[in-house]
Design goal:
The chain has 250 residues and is of the alpha+beta class. The chain contains nine helices and seven strands, in the order αααααααααβββββββ. 60% of the residues lie in helices and 14% in strands. The strands form two sheets. It has a five-stranded antiparallel β-sheet with strand order 6-5-4-1-7. The longest helix is centred in the last third of the chain and has 31 residues, at 158-188. It is elongated and about 80 Å long. Residues 5-21 have low confidence and may be disordered.
Length: 250
């Protein structure tokens, strides 16, 4: 009993000390509030390297980069915050402000409306959820086919059974496809922010023809890589090759 009491007192003492000491995140925020942004950035980065990341961490880090006029890095970390939490309104607003400050001549060409609608649908649920739904339709389809075979359609007319079979089959295929695309989007959704002004090239070689000059702050979508170069697509649908030394991946 005495040992338990001592152990409890010791744990309470350690907890009180830990609670009384501010976290690294709080210290970094305090440094940023005092306009010591370089020191704040160093501490924020230490937290990032430790793996204890969050949308708020990246948002505050981006704000410190803005204060130091490091706009490309600010865009990178606002984008990182939005990757963790797409609904982070403060990051969205500040990202737009920085884009306006840089006056990047980006003409965002959106996908065809049906593709956008379909993407919104399959991104609404995780891949595992779509897999469960598609499996449910497959079980219903198999059960209905078994029923038709076993009872020879005794209680279901043919003109009704065929549409039901087609509906269940289409449901299975649609939801399976949605799950595959949802999973594929997580694997291949690599993006980056240009850090150094450089030309997008027509091939994975510095001697290739110039396609377009990409300025710091441009967002690129990574498609493939070859011979140390990355094949990328810009927001205005230009496709070419870009050297990894000139951008940071989100």
């Amino acid at each position: 009993m005495l040992f338990r009491r001592l152990a409890l007192l010791l744990s309470l003492f350690i907890a009180s000390i830990a609670h009384g000491q501010p976290s690294d995140f709080a210290v970094a925020n305090g440094l940023a509030d005092q306009s010591q942004h370089q020191n704040a950035i160093e501490l924020y980065r230490q937290i990032e390297f430790s793996g204890n990341v969050s949308a708020e961490l990246f948002y505050n880090l981006a704000n410190s980069y803005v204060a130091l006029d490091s706009f490309a890095l600010a865009i990178l970390y606002y984008e990182k915050a939005l990757k963790i939490n797409p609904g982070h309104a403060a990051s969205t607003n500040n990202l737009q402000i920085v884009h306006n400050l840089l006056q990047l001549d980006i003409i965002d060409i959106p996908d065809f409306i049906l593709f956008r609608k379909w993407r919104a649908i399959y991104m609404a649920l995780p891949a595992n959820a779509w897999a469960v739904i598609s499996l449910l339709f497959l079980v219903l389809l198999a059960s209905f086919l078994y029923y038709l075979w076993f009872y020879r359609g005794r209680h279901v007319k043919r003109r009704i059974s065929i549409p039901i079979v087609l509906l269940l089959l289409m449901g299975f295929m649609t939801f399976a496809w949605a799950g595959w695309q949802r999973k594929n989007s997580l694997i291949h959704s690599r993006e980056g922010i240009v850090m150094v002004s450089s030309f997008l090239k027509s091939g994975p070689d510095p001697r290739s023809n110039d396609v377009k000059l990409l300025k710091p702050g441009y967002k690129i979508f990574i498609i493939d890589q070859l011979e140390g170069w990355h094949k990328v697509r810009t927001e205005d649908r230009e496709v070419g090759w870009f050297h990894p030394d000139h951008f940071e991946e989100i």
